[in-house]
Q: What sequence folds into this?
């Protein structure tokens, strides 16, 4: 069978299945084009002069890498002129980015983490891009932060790219999850897997174990049971993997099952976890659910969290359904 490009896949989603309109198709195409540009910049490594710190901080007080800044610029520049967006929000920018007045405005809001896992750049380990699409509320011409604060159930599309040994783009528009691989010679994303499903059974977990002393009791209980292995309450051995790039860890789970966890901990009692709801947890939760998995804060379904601020953080549990349900039950028992 002839390879199906992302462009053709999206046109068929629009024309034959009516799942997306031409503006949403354009939006996804433009984001994918930006991901190609980021992939090229990441791939050049030291030769591109893009490794290392940008000597600046983002709104979360994290030191930005040169590639964080560059990836953010690539996504902004690619998306602001097409007429498909009302505004853009990014992990790397304190406030939403308005579409310049010289360009037409569209009906969508785009949110992204331009380079997830960026602490891995300098050691040549996979990083990625995460994005989420919401509709701009009716009648709003100049969207503000409040217009972005919609629960994840309202997402119209979400996706992530992983810049690893190969560059892949994983996408949902609400009817399954599809995976595309970048053909570097041709320069286009090609459909390589339709309808990804997360395996139900798992023997693998992903968590930063160095924080164990800061965890709350339900977390300690869950992980101690996994560590107890075959002779413990779970009756089987579990393996652990932690890349420290959420995109790479969740992609592994999409492929062979498992649970990804970044819990709230007592190291920073006022901060509910490390990961950001709007451009990390929600898009990945949408994708994971669409692939038959589950995503939770421990207390509630991730996609039903009513956001209160753009850069809000949440505890994250996602992956194989039975594991997410079990660890969430442990949290609810504690309440
Ligand atoms: P980033 O978006 O600034 O790169 O931070 C998010 C990353 C996730 O990709 C990853 O799961 C986590 O931070 C790793 O955190 P830690 O270094 O605490 O293990
Ligand atoms: Mg991130």
A:
């Amino acid at each position: 069978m002839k390879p199906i490009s992302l462009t053709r896949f999206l046109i068929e989603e629009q024309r034959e299945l009516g799942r997306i309109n031409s503006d949403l198709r354009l939006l996804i195409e433009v984001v994918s084009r930006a991901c190609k540009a980021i992939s090229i910049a990441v791939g050049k490594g030291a030769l591109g002069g893009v490794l290392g710190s940008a000597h600046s901080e983002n709104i979360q007080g994290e030191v930005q890498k040169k590639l964080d800044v560059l990836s953010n610029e690539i996504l902004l520049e690619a998306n602001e002129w097409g007429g498909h967006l009302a505004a853009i929000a990014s992990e790397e920018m304190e406030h939403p980015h308005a579409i310049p007045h010289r360009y037409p405005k569209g009906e969508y809001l785009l949110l992204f983490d331009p380079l997830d896992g960026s602490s891995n750049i300098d050691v040549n380990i996979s990083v990625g891009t995460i994005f989420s699409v919401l509709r701009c509320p009716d009648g709003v011409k100049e969207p503000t932060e409040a217009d972005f604060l919609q629960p994840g159930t309202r997402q119209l599309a979400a996706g992530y790219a992983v810049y690893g040994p190969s560059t892949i783009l994983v996408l949902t528009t609400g009817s399954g999850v599809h995976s595309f691989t970048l053909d570097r010679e041709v320069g286009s994303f090609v459909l390589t897997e339709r309808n990804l499903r997360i395996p139900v059974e798992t023997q693998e977990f992903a968590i930063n174990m160095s924080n164990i002393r800061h965890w709350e009791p339900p977390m300690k209980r869950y992980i101690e049971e996994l560590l107890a292995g075959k002779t413990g309450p779970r009756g089987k051995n579990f393996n652990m993997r932690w890349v420290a790039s959420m995109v790479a860890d969740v992609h592994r789970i999409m492929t062979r099952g498992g649970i990804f966890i970044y819990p709230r901990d007592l190291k920073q009692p006022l901060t509910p976890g490390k990961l950001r709801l709007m451009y990390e947890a929600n898009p990945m939760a949408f994708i994971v659910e669409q692939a038959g998995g589950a995503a939770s804060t421990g207390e509630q379904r991730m996609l039903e969290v009513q956001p209160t601020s753009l850069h809000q953080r949440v505890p994250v549990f996602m992956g194989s359904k039975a594991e997410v349900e079990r660890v969430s039950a442990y949290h609810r028992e504690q309440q």
In short: The chain has a mean pLDDT of 94. The helical segments are 6-15, 22-44, 66-79, 145-148, 217-227, 246-256, 277-290, 321-334. The pocket of magnesium ion (ligand 2) is lined by residues 113, 116, 246, 280 (CB under 6 Å). The chain has eight helices and 17 strands.
